[in-house]
Amino acid sequence: MGWIEHDYRDGDALATALANLLHATCRDAIDARGRAVLALAGGRTPFPAYRALAAMRLDWSCVVLLPSDERCVPHDHPACNVAELRKAFADARGVVIESLTTEDGDPARSESHARRRLAVYPGPFDAIVLGMGQDAHTASLFPGAPQLRDALDLDNALEATRIDPRPLPPEAPFPRISLTLSRLLRTQALHLALTGQAKRDVLQAARASGNMARHPVAALGEGQATVHMHWSP
Is the pTM of this model over 0.85? Predict the structure, then answer.
């Protein structure tokens, strides 16, 4: 539908605003349908918002959280996104946190596991929170990955796919499981959280290029949900 930019004075203000938006989304979804389902990115930027959200009053037993993508590592590995989500929401008693990977992180079994778990939640997400890398990847939709073309295909009915970044990021050199673009866009609300002028410049260049293979984040504008870009210096 389009993009709306929200600028904040600093990271704390971004985190507070995003937490409040997600809390309202959960509350409204629970009131309307008895359950809220959110897909949440890893990375440094959104976690202060997650911790703030976890401290808010909510019927957490009616909330399901799952990663938007996951590194194929064991769940006790420091690079595991779902382990970090569990820590961030430790105070949200009763919340359900799904994983896209098996306990041992095996890539092939994790891909099948992710598709089975996503099938339990066939409706649109109530909200998705994503980040973006300096190479314009979002979730784990990395430019140059051999699976990227299929992952970006809106006619692809598969909801999750293995992604092998090329080259592997040196800070996290692992295969990934990612939601496909078609699943990412099936949401009531889409939030992209960024910090720093460099990230903003990358996003602007990506949107201007329209080249989704080179700048996968540009594909977020292909959906029906407005993309809310939350930015702080």
Answer: yes
